[in-house]
Amino acid sequence: MWLTLAANKILEDRLNDEDHSIADSETTSAEIQNFTLFVSSWNVGGITPPTNLNMEDLLDTRNNMADIYVLGFQEIVPLNAGNIIVQENTSISMQWNSLIRASLNMTDAINQRAEVGENQKVYPLKREGSTTSNSPQFECIISKQMVGIFITIWARTNLLPYISHTSVSSVGCGIFGRLGNKGSVSVRFCLHETSFCFVCSHLASGGNEGDNRERNSNVSQILSRTLFSAVPFYCLPTKILQHDRVIWLGDLNYRIDLPEHTTRSLVNDQQWSTLLHNDQLKAELREGCTFEGWNEEEIEFAPTYKYNQDSDDYYGCNNQKEKKGKTRVPAWCDRIIWFGKGLNQRQYSRGECKLSDHRPVRAIFTAEVKLQCQSTENFVKMF
Known about the structure:
disordered N terminus
């Protein structure tokens, strides 16, 4: 009997020692690795993408290859009464995903399966060593559409085993304060031990007095009403600002608080600093009324809205006749901002595709990610 008690005491002491060593290793040897994120937003004006659309201008894959691509679109369908009632049009989102797949993997995607589900689609995560030389370099981990808002996220195949807990949350802020012609689609996932949240939104439009307050109201609703699913036995964030790394992208629709003729003159002279000093979103970021604690990289490119389709001319330029009451002053409607620590923005630019009346914006981030603790994994394997 005393042998049994002694053996139990030895085992207890050993477990206590191992518990302390694990705790010490977790606090002293937590490994941080940097990953590259490509984030882009584009209002495509309800235009179906042509099959020969060159996505290289947007993705810039010849100059940069990121680890994760986050692409947000607005108005992938026209915002008419019929489309507002229908939350998803999978044929359109499938076309966009097919073009993205082809560009990221530099292959013909015609015969490849489109990866968009009826509601939320989370694709099976592959294990290391399961890919072949013919396997794609990037896979879609999740896509979600709400009326015209569409977000799709792609990751390198060797990262898939370390991506978990994908979840989506959609918030309609449009007609009646609930319909999806305006609002957001947000995506949550974890990479190793770090949580990410991406918010793709289309806020209230308009350049009249009071429209800015409506946009601010949309932001407040999105922050308060977005709710991600909880996972049993895991302490995962359920609200946007609870995540480790948060990026907000979309047609935020904030305008420039200057008279139209002054704005157009300053745009022609490329006086970006003067224009940005009067930019509504920059004012919100400075004053913290709506986007308290959020950040945006310096803008050094021309306003992305509103262009004549298939043209480099802004709407209303060159003595063009405009419809009464339909003037559109150039503005930086399309933006990418971020919240919290652990993100370093390396690039902020725009694409030049003339498909719609907006130009796309894109950003490249370096994100700090906490890797899974190796010592804990070894301890679990022992038992």
